Amino acid sequence: MPGTSQDNELRAAGDRIETLMGELAAAGPAVRGRAEELVRLLMRLYGAGLERILTAVDDAGQAATPIFARLAADDLVASLLVLHDLHPLDLETRVGRALDHVRPYLGSHGGDVKLLGIEEGVVRLRLEGSCHGCPSSTVTMKLAVEKAIEEAAPEIVRIAVEGAGDRTDPAAPSDRSDLSCPTDLVQIGGGLSGGAP
User: Does domain 91-188 have CATH number 3.40.605.10?
Assistant: First the structure.
């Protein structure tokens, strides 16, 4: 696993790439077109290399399982695998694992989360349990869920979260006067596009 300083260097490199692409785009359509073509070609080359690596590892059979698990657990490698549609775990499995990872934290706030489905890049969830009448607890739980999913599945377009109130009937109408624990559909992270840092 990369250390903190290496993670910071990689994020800085990603930021610098975005800055350079912006500067090239400002130079005019011809320069922008060539820059985009260069990036596409590099991505295709690196994607093909990653695919060959995974194929070689996969040829090892059962011995490859811990290697795939280690690759999937590394944030940078996992985001590159997602970017090239090579991640060994499907989207639903990755989201499920992210939710399992955040459940103990949600439990410490008296809550839980249930995956309702994933359709067209939208993850639908329901926060359950009690938020103890505290709007900041609800927001904290939503942010924890959002962060976990964004890290595990950066290709997600949006996360839609149903309320975190005490109601046991999710079809029950929302009580607009109780804003401390909203139960109507709330959308967070309106565009969680990800990729390599």
Answer: no
